[in-house]
Amino acid sequence: MMIKTFSHEVRSREEFEMIKITKQVQQDVAESGMQRGLAFVISLHTTTSIMINESLPCVEKDIEQTLERIIPTDGDYVHTHMLPSYGTCSGNAPGHLKSMLCGNHCVLPVENGKIAGGAAQDIYFVEFDGLKIRKYIVELLGE
Questions:
Q1: pTM for the structure as a whole
Q2: At what angle do helices 57-70 and 93-102 cross, to 10 degrees?
Q3: Is the pLDDT of residue 81 over 80?
């Protein structure tokens, strides 16, 4: 049994952004030499998400618009006050809530040295609190 961990950075350029990371995850699996096991992709932030979906601009826009309807940016949130521990004001309650709704990770099987997924599936790192440098890890467990 082997465990390999890869760390990656992404740079978001917008408040909401869906960044495809499928190729990087595939590259990590290939580099690990693992033939069979599981790939865990995990965001290290509370206002981001990892999700799997179809890679079409119209689907991406539908996801963005639906999340905005459910959790509007200009909603009346409690998390909009001074945070002495950070030395700044918060204003990212919608990002926290969208992250909670979408989840911070995904798990994919690895078969024959490749992640196993549907033909239309892509892995996304999703930013809800934009214009930041973010991190995620890919943890591989298998043989």
A1: 0.92
A2: 120
A3: no
